[in-house]
Amino acid sequence: MIAKAINSILTYSLLIPLVFLLSCKSSKYVIHISGQKTTDIIRILDSDYKIIFHSSPQEAVTQANEGEAVLILAEQYPHETTSLNAELFRQIKIKNLPTYIEYPSYLPELQVDNPVSSSIERVLVNSPNLSQSLDSLDILVINGLHYCPVDIQQNYLLAARVAGFDEAVYGLPDQTSPLLFELPDYPVLVATCCLSRPITARYAPRESWEAVWEGILNYILPDGAMASVSWIPDVLPMYSQNETLPENYQNEAVRMGAEWFYNAKMILHESYVDTLRKMENSNLLKWKQEMPVGDGHFGSLEAIMSVIDENGSQPIGTVQRGDCIGETAMAMAASGSLLDKDSYHSTAKNLLNYYLKNSPAAENEWADPDHGAYGLIPWGITNYAWYRANYGDDNARQLMGIMVTSALTQSTDWDDIAMKCLLAQLRTTGKNGFRGNRIDLPDFERNGWEYYHNRDIINIAPHFESYLWACFLWAYDKTGYPMFLELAKKAIGISMEHYPQGWQWTNGLVQEKARMILCLSWLLRVDDSEQHRTWLKTIAYDLIALQDDCGAIREELGDLSMGKYPPPQSNDAYGTNEASLLGKNGDEVSDLLYTSNFAFLGLHEAAHTTKDPFIIEANNKLAEFLCRIQVKSPAHPEIHGAWFRAFDYGRFEHWGCNADLGWGAWCIESGWTQGWITTILALREMDTSIWDLTQNSGVAKNFDELLIQMGLPD
Fold this sequence. Notes:
Layout: H1 2-6, E1 21-23, E2 30-34, E3 50-54, H2 57-63, E4 69-72, H3 86-94, E5 99-102, E6 116-118, E7 122-125, E8 139-140, E9 145-147, E10 157-160, E11 176-182, E12 188-191, H4 206-220, E13 228-230, E14 236-237, H5 249-263, H6 273-278, E15 284-285, E16 303-304, E17 316-317, H7 322-339, H8 342-358, H9 384-387, E18 389-390, H10 392-409, H11 415-427, E19 439-440, H12 441-453, H13 462-479, H14 482-497, H15 509-526, H16 530-544, E20 589-591, H17 596-610, H18 613-629, E21 631-632, E22 646-648, E23 668-669, H19 670-686, H20 690-693, H21 703-709
Helix pairs in contact: 5-7, 5-19, 7-8, 7-10, 7-19, 8-10, 10-11, 10-13, 11-13, 13-14, 13-15, 15-16, 15-17, 17-18, 17-19
């Protein structure tokens, strides 16, 4: 019977909203079904079939006539397996009933163990014989995977911990578990999990799962039947790749991007403050529609995490981070100005006041003038692991959030805090303009700030360093203080001397290029020279060379010896660390957490600085691409209007290697991703740049006094 699947013709019918369509040559086929009538896959079967529903698997098999097809679906997945017994299989064999069974409690002559759940294993095609559209070692995903372990050698699909983007780059791992196989001596196809909920549980990639179901249906249908399966997922890009965009598409993207912060429950309500305190070491909170939303007085949360359950839902990441709160405030302020929503401005101001004035971030060592950490802003406040840390890059993005929010709300409430932080970062930056990736409170307590100011460190890692250089250049423009300019120029010069082979990269080389564009653009604002223009053009044009016709920016790996978080280098390494979205260079994936979001910021500022038509065109293409791939999912308000980390622009589908331990393909970072994309789209609509918007900042009004307080030379 599997031969029928091999010879199936993959002719896809037109998509129609919210239904499946199965086309077939005959209108006489009978299919007996045990399972809930609302199960996704049942909607495949159209009026050409005589569908007979039964209350149990036993009833379906008993009432089926010889040779008729049977589907036995997992009604109580994942809580209960499908109840089966030896008599049922005896009747299947006697009556020669081609049958598909999922999540079984029993199989003849095979031991079926109790179900296990797995969040790390993906689906691996082990045989191409199920469908011509599937190749061995193709990778698919079942979200909320639960399966019953069975020991059988011949399988069509396996559960496996496997590295790769859409194919297993290191081959079949030693340890696997069968997911789909033909039962020996029986006309039965067995799934040890549940395959019948591909829409509800958001199985991906879509076309691969359509091919799987074509193979399953061709197995149970009589000879000569040719199934063609397609469906519309619950989660889609906002617009298809070739769809004509509405005139106000950018404005609409901002509106939905801002609404996401509320729909996703990112703005913390007072009633949930105690809930988060009691969660101790758990940073995942189940999203619920009925959760109240705050007004910013108690801060905001970090993310929607890349964990999708069997119902297609994703949890909230509850960490409170300074950078994310600053960037969320910025997005609220920009959206409020564009959309004329005073409530958004109020939320933005409340968020900054919470973190910078009313939270533990404004207390203890960070507020002690005699401590080396004075003036810096801690990474987060959820627990000590976050509270002790200070990243220059995270402070830099928080500072930019303050800049934009101050300008748009016409507030000076955070000027001294911002300037103090700029000077604190400056005094902990070494002689060459590099600060290093991170400095923690215990480090300051051992060394004081002068140790870091006098270091001869070189750390060519734009991901960690370059946004601080941008902030120093901005601060120089506002204060005229030469050390801001000198250290930024020196570090940028050293970095460009070693481009690209000497650059350390974090998740990919292209993200380092994306990060550098901002500081090079702002360098031109304060020191416009031919060399500086050449530097900017070199980096910007090299990044644009990776831009696809659709506007996407392709990820790219550098020399692996220079990479901090490359793709997993073995199957066993999958899911054990931070990681890239691609498996190898050439994979058609864009990263909206580390690359495209910051390329959007950099190209936007570069376009306003240089008026270069090539850069302007590239940024316009990127903006259109980002608006197209914004998530459309009315069924899931926690993700509707957001941007996932990963997008496969070849398939034009939200897909990527989900290897990253914390920030997988379907995560939505409130600050890094949502904050920046929403903000830059809003500034595009307002036809301004961050530099121009903040030109009249009063951040330097108490500069001389603060300079003395921070112990830096006059």
